[in-house]
Specification:
The complex is a heterotrimer of chains A (389), B (422) and C (242). Chain A is α+β, with helices and mostly antiparallel strands. Helices cover 49% and strands 18% of the residues of chain A. Chain A is built from eleven helices and 13 strands. In chain A, strands 1, 3, 4, 5, 6, 7, 8, 10 and 11 form a nine-stranded mixed β-sheet that branches. A two-stranded antiparallel sheet of chain A has the order 2-9. Chain B is an alpha+beta fold. Chain B contains 16 helices and twelve strands. The radius of gyration of chain B is 30 Å and the shape is elongated. The longest helix of chain B has 41 residues. Chain B has a six-stranded mixed barrel. In chain B, strands 11-12 form a two-stranded antiparallel ribbon. With 242 residues, chain C is an alpha+beta fold. Helix content of chain C is 17%, strand content 48%. Chain C is built from five helices and 13 strands. Chain C is globular and about 75 Å long. The chains are: A alpha+beta (389), B alpha+beta (422), C alpha+beta (242). Chains in contact: A-B, A-C, B-C. At the A-B interface, helix 2 and helix 7 of A face helix 2 and helix 11 of B.
């Protein structure tokens, strides 16, 4: 077998321009597939990370009366935390968030919003909540989309009106102390963030909450009237967006691979034709047909191997660039509710690289084998004389 | 000579079949790649246009400033004269009036008391003119029932209808606000169920006739906005920007908050970035691919002609001039390229057309999404798709033949002849 | 003489009205056993102004109320029934009775500056608020007591109010509703008064949501009768459909 591999390698090197071209095309397809998959993986990573870091944490508990898709139920979507969950909060393993409906009056027009109260010193969600400890009377954080739709910016004040737990109206002017650039729309559009203590106070509540965000993914059952929502469950939207992209990428991969395999197939066909005398001679000298087929197949497969190596050589800097610098993507997907980052950074895991490598290698080997099947039917005496049968 | 070469190609399949197959595959892939990219990226633009922005969108200045809030009290009024002007001034556009609204859908029990209720988002279009229903592809999305034909009939997203336990023919009450802020109630009969293929809409959307909603919302001859579409439904940014500019000069008035303003898709909410990205990314990807395909086909052309050195040797020995053979080879390669490209383009366009109509459905994967993404990936056949296969399909093999033919000039006739070895 | 003046002054202090007493007189003006009124609400939108006329029946100091819209044609036949803190609306367009609860109460009444929550708010000032006179002031050329009202119980929409009460007629010529924080939320001003059945009553008043831009909402009382015979079935859901 070693002889066959050695021979195959020498033959390949003898091919010069044709070999170089085949390797170039294959490596282009390989790197293109890798890059595209890397971008998808990167997109998945970024979106997942953003949603986990900024919204979902390690999972959540929701008070039973809370339905994120029914804003009309928000009035009553609060409740005291059970002792078990309070213990988790005290240990720093969870943070409560209270949601209350309110109204703001940007430019004198009424607009419904949701007030979200969170502990300014929390370290579970990646948000600039420490600014909520400001000396200013009612410091507020809004997202950039909210800022855009209301025309508010840092330093602006906005009148907020709400009803406390007992139904009494209250109103106060809050000051925007930060506008956060988040890609997670659900914590941005129509949301105003404030200190949990402030919100509890103005709502005339003591220890109520609507959501409890966990620090780590936690396999748990629901507790009393708090329903457990796993991180996986809460990431469903992100998964769906990535799955959509994956479907697109499968077609892209097929097209790119098709491109590369045409080259190999044609090259192999040519090789079998061109070297028929050599094939006939080898068979006449005693090499089995199987070995001859193996020789040509390995030659074709070696194209794949060399292409992969070449791909790594010129592809690695490109991959590194995509990992570090990324590429900008349109943000109009934003309008469709997707948590799309403005800049996509590729992510290349070992699994991804191995899978792509294996895929190329396998496909090239199979396509290299197909044209060599005709060697099995070749008559060696005719072949030596250059006849094509 | 062409006739002779063509006969040779058609009769001697042993030498022409493989190159034609290779070129066919190359052209096919180029067409699929291009139409798929157009479909994928264009799909995003199309979804945005059909359900949100139109190719151009007309609303009042005041509405535009806070459009996120869907402020119907700032909506367009006296839309019919505006529509007439639009149809006269821009006859190559399709215009769609629309009202967007929200509220609660209340399902009564046998006593008329509330049985179930759910928040709903609605769009009202003019069903009598078909423009709206065609643009929003409502017929395609109809799962059961029929489009509204009588007053106060609505279509509901199937998912939402199932959640509320509704059947075709059931009566529901819409609780909403008029443009003046009054509460309004109206009964509707469910005439059909829709599947939008866009999960955010499937969660709780109704489609109603605009006349019904105008009466419910107390906005006679009013509309939230008017969407305009190029008649071929293909977005041309330059044209739309120009159209919007002209409209605003003629009909707009920046001083009047209730005067209409027209915006192209690209001018709305950062979508110009999307267009730029889509253009650039698509061009780069397709360009790279076509280049790579061209190399493959060039290589194939090169090899296809290299294997004919023996034949060329005989022809030279028989007295055919080198130049004549060289030109014949190139011409033959072109013809193979043309034949392969035609077949590849036909097959590619056929597949692309099927993808355009039926698409690749990954909807099953998207169960509880809130994203406005169509669940079906489609290709898009554009005029350029008819020619893109020919770029690598004809020129690349010809180039291969040009390079391979250099051997005719460089090598001795005898050594070429020897290739045959018969 | 000096002593006589001092005695008169001392006597006047003894007989000076207290905040609760003034409030009681105000309540007495507004309430009888019951009342039947016809009124017009003029709403000033951004673009247009609209008038809605209605006929109302109320009893038990406003705890029970029934309103039927008379015009314009679009609103005609719409009815509202208030029983304590519950509210139902009948829409002739839908031929349905819908209970207005929760989030829906925040909606404005026919697009006015008054919300359904405001409509449900009890008008019994004496029982709901403790009051004190903070000063006396001239308002629209009328001598007024300025009273500060602080809610006696939880659940009142406006925990703090200020009213300018006409000293002679005991009508709240101006009233301001405040949030717990002291932020001014709503203001109503009586622009015109008339006398009916030995009492003074507002003829025209303006109600304004102070957080919104706009001209507010005007209420004109076309006619009002007190202590009429109102059948009990008036304040039932069945009456909404009649």
């Amino acid at each position: 077998m070693l002889l066959v591999i050695n021979l195959a390698f020498k033959n390949l090197m003898g091919g010069r321009l044709r070999t170089v071209l085949n390797i170039l095309i294959l490596s282009f397809a390989f790197v293109a597939i890798l890059l595209y998959q890397g971008l998808i993986a990167g997109m998945n990573d970024q979106m997942t990370r953003a949603v986990i870091e900024e919204e979902v944490g390690g999972g959540q508990f929701w008070v039973n009366s809370y339905d994120p898709y029914d804003p009309f139920k928000l009035d009553n979507a609060y409740g005291p935390l059970p002792s078990k969950l309070i213990a988790m909060v005290n240990e720093g393993q969870a943070e409560p968030i209270l949601l209350r409906p309110a109204t703001i009056f940007p430019q004198g027009r009424e607009q419904g919003v949701v007030l979200r109260g969170i502990n300014p010193n929390q370290n579970i969600l990646k948000m600039p909540t420490t600014v909520l400890s400001s000396e200013i009377e009612l410091p507020l954080i809004i997202g950039k989309r909210m800022a855009k739709s209301t025309g508010l910016k840092v330093g602006d004040t906005i009148m907020i009106r709400w009803r406390d737990k007992n139904g009494a109206f209250d109103a106060k002017k809050g000051t925007i102390v930060a506008v956060m650039g988040t890609i997670v729309q659900t914590i941005d559009r129509g949301q105003i963030w404030m200190s949990l203590q402030d919100l509890l106070k103005i709502s005339n509540m003591e220890k109520e909450a609507t959501i409890l965000v966990l620090k780590y993914p936690h396999i748990s059952e629901s507790i009393e009237n708090w329903t457990y929502k796993s991180q996986k469950n809460l990431l469903q939207d992100v998964k769906s967006a990535v799955d959509a992209e994956k479907s697109f990428s499968i077609v892209m991969n097929i097209i790119l691979l098709g491109l590369a395999l045409i080259a190999i197939f044609d090259s192999q066909m040519f090789a079998v034709f061109r070297r028929r005398k050599e094939i006939g001679t080898l068979i006449a000298l005693g090499m089995t047909r199987a070995k001859v087929i193996a020789l040509f197949t390995i030659e074709g497969a070696l194209n794949g191997v060399l292409a992969i190596c070449a791909g790594f050589v010129w592809g690695l800097p490109l991959m590194r660039y995509m990992m570090n610098t990324g590429m900008s993507v349109y943000s109009a997907a934003d309008d469709f509710g997707m948590a799309m980052p403005e800049r996509l950074y590729a992510s290349f895991s070992l699994q991804l690289i191995l899978e792509s490598t294996l895929l190329i290698f396998l496909m090239v080997t199979i396509v290299s084998y197909l044209p060599t099947k005709k060697i099995a039917k070749l008559n060696p005496t005719d072949a030596i004389r250059g006849k094509v049968t | 000579m062409i006739k002779f070469l063509l006969k040779g190609i058609l009769r001697d399949r042993s030498r022409s079949l493989l190159p034609i197959i290779i070129v066919t595959m190359g052209a096919f892939l180029a067409v699929i790649m291009y139409t798929f990219m157009e479909g994928g990226i264009g799909g995003m633009i199309e979804t945005s246009a059909r359900f949100n922005t139109g190719h151009v969108r007309i609303m009042t200045n005041a509405y535009y400033k806070i459009q996120d809030q869907v402020p119907n009290d700032l909506a367009l009024i006296e839309v019919s004269p505006l529509l007439e002007k639009l149809q006269t001034t821009y006859p190559d556009f399709r215009w769609m009036t629309r009202i967007q609204f929200g509220g609660l859908l209340d399902v009564p029990d046998e006593n008329g008391e509330t049985l179930k209720q759910g928040p709903v988002v609605g769009t009202a279009i003019d069903f009598s003119s078909n423009v709206g229903s065609e643009i929003m592809k409502i017929k395609q999305g109809l799962v059961s029932g029929a489009l509204p034909t009588k007053p106060f009939e609505i279509l509901i997203s199937e998912q939402f209808a199932n959640k509320l336990g509704l059947k075709i023919g059931d009566s529901v009450t819409l609780l909403t606000s008029t443009i003046n802020g009054s509460m309004a109630f109206a009964n509707f009969i469910v005439s059909g169920f829709l599947s939008f293929g866009i999960n955010a809409m499937d969660r709780g959307t109704i489609i109603a006739d605009i006349k019904d909603i105008q009466s419910v919302l107390d906005m006679p001859d009013g509309a939230s906005d008017v969407l305009g579409f190029a008649s071929n439904m293909i977005y041309d940014d330059k044209k739309m920007v120009e159209t919007a500019k002209k409209f605003n000069v003629t009909f707009g008035n920046a001083e009047d908050e209730f005067a209409p303003i027209m915006l192209s898709l690209g001018e709305q909410d950062g979508l110009d970035e999307m267009l730029g990205y889509a253009d650039a990314a698509g061009s780069i990807i397709v360009g790279l691919f076509v280049f790579a395909m061209a190399i493959v086909l060039w290589n194939s052309g090169l090899m296809g002609n290299l294997r004919r050195y023996g034949e060329i040797g005989i022809r030279l020995a028989m007295g055919e001039p080198k130049g004549f053979i060289y030109r014949a080879m190139i011409l033959e390669s072109c013809m193979i390229g043309i034949i392969g490209s035609i077949i590849g383009t036909i097959i590619g366009l056929f597949c692309a057309y099927l993808l355009e109509i039926y698409g690749l459905d990954y909807g099953a994967l998207m169960q509880s999404s809130t994203m406005m993404m169509e669940n079906v990936m489609r290709a898009k056949v554009t005029p350029f798709a008819f020619v893109i296969g020919f770029l690598p399909g004809v020129f690349a093999p010809a180039l291969g033949a040009i390079f391979a033919g250099i051997g005719i000039y460089k090598r001795q006739t005898a050594s070429l002849f020897k290739e045959l070895e018969v | 003489m000096k002593i006589f003046a001092q005695i008169i002054l001392l006597l006047s202090f003894c007989f000076a009205l207290t905040g609760p007493e003034i409030l009681q007189k105000v309540d007495n003006n507004f309430q009888g056993l019951n009342q039947i009124s016809e009124s017009t609400m003029i709403i000033h939108d951004l673009r247009f102004s609209r008038s809605i006329s209605a006929k109302s029946w109320s009893a038990e100091k406003g705890k029970l109320a029934f309103t039927e819209y008379l015009s314009p044609a679009r609103e005609k036949g719409t009815k509202m029934l208030k029983i304590e803190d519950e509210l139902w609306i009948y829409s002739p367009m839908a031929d349905r009775i819908i209970k207005i609860a929760g989030h829906m109460l925040k909606q404005s009444v026919s697009g006015s500056d008054l919300s359904y929550e405001d409509y449900l708010e009890e008008s019994d000032l004496v029982n709901n608020y403790s009051s004190k006179i903070i000063r006396e002031e001239l308002f629209e050329e009328r001598e007024c007591y300025v009273l500060e009202l602080v809610g006696k119980k939880e659940g009142l929409s406006y925990p703090v109010q200020k009213i300018w009460v006409d000293k002679e007629r005991f009508l709240p010529l101006k009233s301001e509703q405040f949030a717990k924080s002291g932020e001014l939320l709503k203001r109503s001003v009586i622009n015109e008064v008339f006398k009916v059945a030995n009492r003074w009553y507002p003829k025209r008043m303006t109600y304004k949501d102070m957080l919104k831009t706009g001209k507010g909402t005007e209420f004109v009382v076309d006619s009002i009768k007190f202590d009429q015979s109102i059948p009990a079935h008036t304040f039932t859901k069945a009456n909404l459909r009649r």
